[in-house]
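Record type: ASSEMBLY
Status: queued
Input:
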Amino acid sequence: MKYLLLVLILLLQPVVVSGEDFVIIVNKNSPLVSADVSTVRDIYLGEKRFAGGIKLVPINMVEGSLKEDFLNRVVGMKPKEYKLHWVKKVFQEGITPPPSMASVTDIIAMVSRDKGAIAYIPAGYSKYLVDVVIVGP
Amino acid sequence: MKNNVFRKVAFLVLVLVLSVAGYASCAELDDVKEELERQQRLIEELKRKVEELEKIERLKAIREKEEEEMGPQFGRNLGAFGDINLLTDSRERENPTFSIGSLGLYTSASYKERLNFLFEMIIYAHNNRSGVNLERLWIGYTFSDTFILRAGRFHTALGRWNKTYHHARHLFPAVDRPFFLKFESIGGIFPVHIVGLELAGSKEMSYGKLKYWIEVGNGPGFRKDRHKSIFGGGDYKLAPNNMFDTNHSKQVAVRAYLEPASIEGLGIGMSGTNFKVGDSNRTITVNEGIYGIDLRYAVGDVELMGEFFYLTNGTAQANAWYLQLSRSMNRFIPYARVEVLDGEDGDPYLSNLSAGRDRTQYIVGTSYVLDLLHSSLKFQYRYDSLKGEKIYNVIEAQWAFHF
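Status: finished
Output:
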């Protein structure tokens, strides 16, 4: 219920915005509230999986310009290189790659629920955020 | 008189206007009130529907999670690495020949991201025999990034290559592993598999990222090599002791790898292992130590990679090393590599191994990336010199894949 207002507002917005700037968000109780870009990079590469005893859950957008932009600017990889990195990671360490979600609303809701979640969303959504904190870029 | 009439009429008009305006305002207020009530009802209705939807979603998620937990996890993300080869007359293959490489199947699963499982098996074809080998099988628990405990069969924490590429030839920078790092059953001289426990982790420090591996397990044994004529050395090959150890001593392997913050693209590793190895009759027993340093430096499109190992057993010493340089040029990745094993005569470890003789290989080739994730072609020339044996100049082609 606490997301009602947020959900109602977001339902009025376009779901996927292409070619837009992004913000990185975490739960307001996340141990990552002061994370820097290098930490975010490590989280999305599976190099850092825990913080303050909490399992971190990086969330990707589905394929698109926003994801490409994020991977390029923060992770320093092209989408295919990022996928290959995760093929190796799964093959070497048996860990699970970050989930991908299509809906910004779903992403924000998940970050609101999960203390360890971290995601990037179009910057245009930042004024509607509830229970999440912007940490970057 | 006229003025009085005018005043009265004006007063009446004013009263009339005010009355009409007042009536109109009341009517508008009623309309607004009604609209607000309607909006309120709509919001209440929407709230109720959202609550219902949330409840349905929660129940659905719980049901799906329960079903997922009850169902098998194994094989849900089954992947395969494989390769097909074509090579001219070589030490390993007598005639110019097509050769099926190995097909590696792997899968992993996790529960709440702390409990992890990995399985990798190989279907191989070697000297016109085929078989199945269990390569890696472990279960692990992640306490934190710095403390991961695993139990099972691993690739030994001995240098960079052995912990990075496993059996995935599509990911190899060249056609094959450096010869001294080959798997035990096909001419390897290092114990590249270990069965036991592994403690691993990583830590971000002010000066860089540090990764470590500590392994304790069954050491390898010497087993008769039916194909000793390929390399012309001793009678034995190394064999990992999967089911039971053949002696009381346990193999220990340790590796630390640092990526310094001050030099981007650089990684430096140190590793070492100590183990007791012997034959089943216990006529041969060797306490062998292998200690190594490894380096990787990637700058722009260029990657330099090298590993140096020092082997010692108190009686003799040996060196094994390789150095590899490659450069990405769009889809082409040309590379060059030198591989050397240089030992002493009478080394009780190397002289008992069929592939333990001094050997040097020079390799020049290129990889052509058909698809970064799925397939690559490699073409290379390999100069192969084994002490006391014929020199081979081998042309090789490989089509490697991952699905």
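Annotation: Residues 79-93 of chain A form the longest helix (15 residues).
Annotation: Strands of chain A lie at 22-27, 50-51, 54-55, 57-61, 100-101, 117-122, 132-136.
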